Amino acid sequence: MGCFAAVLRADPKQVEARSDLGAALLQLGRVEEAVVQLRQVLREQPGHAKAQDNLGVALATAGQLEEAIEHFREALRLKPRAANTHFNLGNVLAMQGRFEEAVGEYGEALRLQPEHVQAQVNLGSALAELGRRKEAIEHLREALRLQPENAVARQKLGELERTTLP
Fold first, then answer.
1. For residue 51, what are the CA distances in angstroms to 7, 11, 17, 155?
2. Which part of the chain is CATH 1.25.40.10?
3. What is the DSSP secondary-structure string of 35-102?
4. By the 8 A CB rule, do 15 and 48 touch?
5. Which of 28, 47, 56, 81 gets the highest tally of CB atoms within 10 A of its CB?
6. pLDDT of residue 16
7. 64 CA to centre of own chain
8. Kindly report the CA angle at 98 between 152 and 118, in degrees rounded to 5?
9. Percent of the chain's residues with pLDDT above 90
10. How far apart are CA 2 and CA 139, in angstroms?
11. Helix, strand, coil % in the chain, rounded to nearest 5
12. Which of the four pLDDT bands, split at 50, 70 and 90, describes residue 9?
């Protein structure tokens, strides 16, 4: 973080360094500080898709789900082929119980990045919430094919298979 701070002291308008600092703070769990840095990036460069996405993650972490959705949608407007942003938006929609919409976002993430294991798991979970067990099982099995040690996928698959009639 010292490198980012040094760059920003020398040139406070260095948008990329500020964006990277915000992302690093987010990784460290310093969410409020990350929000401050990412909002500054977006004041200077509103079209910065990665900062929009990272701010969405930070806001979702802070429980500000509606505002997080706005930033994810803006990030996707700027960069529609960003699989991870579709995944992040799906997560927030699922947190709100908006499973049909979440399924669409996870599906798009997988269309763009077919081996996104966590999108497979989360899609399976959202489908299960909608009562679409057969499809849910297919996605959870795919997640385990891609990552056999994925404990969450294994647990969810086991639960579904125990409750599914033959």
1. 18, 19, 11, 34
2. 1-80, 82-166
3. HHHHHHHHHH-TT-HHHHHHHHHHHHHTT-HHHHHHHHHHHHHH-TT-HHHHHHHHHHHHHTT-HHHH
4. yes
5. 56
6. 86
7. 14
8. 25
9. 84
10. 42
11. 80, 0, 20
12. very low
- pLDDT level of residue 63 (50, 70, 90 thresholds): very high
CA atoms within 13 A on the CB side of 126: 25
Res. 128: pLDDT tops 80:
yes
Let me know: does 164 contact 133? Beta carbons within 8 Å: yes
Tokens at 49, concatenated:
């898709």
Return the structure tokens found at 91: 């997560």
Q: How far apart are CA 124 and CA 128, in angstroms?
A: 6
Place of tokens 């406070």: 12
Amino acid found at 29: G
User: Domain 82-166 class?
Assistant: mainly alpha
- CA 34/CA 37 separation, integer angstroms: 5
Q: Residues 102, 90: contact at Cβ < 8 Å?
A: yes
